[in-house]
């Protein structure tokens, strides 16, 4: 049985072509891919890695 959820993209992406999608595993892992190339490479993150990234994004650590 596949324990991965459906691929999702942010609502802010709208119908644009520059979208990134993510999906969650029941154990907390996350995967990210380019929605324009769904058969292309997938980046995988542990629960801890994903949480560190999200915390950094929320705190503005990646803002230019």
UniProtKB/TrEMBL annotation:
Phylogenetic lineage: Bacteria, Bacillati, Actinomycetota, Actinomycetes, Catenulisporales
Region (Disordered): 1-38
Source superkingdom: Bacteria
Residue stretches making up the DUF397 domain: 6-58
Name the UniProt record assigns to this protein: DUF397 domain-containing protein
A Pfam family of this chain: DUF397
Biased composition (Basic and acidic residues): 22-37
Organism: Catenulispora acidiphila (strain DSM 44928 / JCM 14897 / NBRC 102108 / NRRL B-24433 / ID139908)
InterPro entries: DUF397 (IPR007278)
């Amino acid at each position: 049985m596949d324990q991965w959820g459906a691929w999702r993209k942010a609502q802010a992406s709208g119908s644009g072509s520059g979208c990134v999608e993510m999906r969650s595993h029941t154990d907390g892992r996350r995967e990210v891919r380019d929605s324009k190339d769904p058969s292309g490479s997938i980046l995988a993150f542990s629960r801890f890695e994903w949480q560190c990234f999200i915390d950094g994004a929320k705190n503005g650590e990646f803002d230019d």
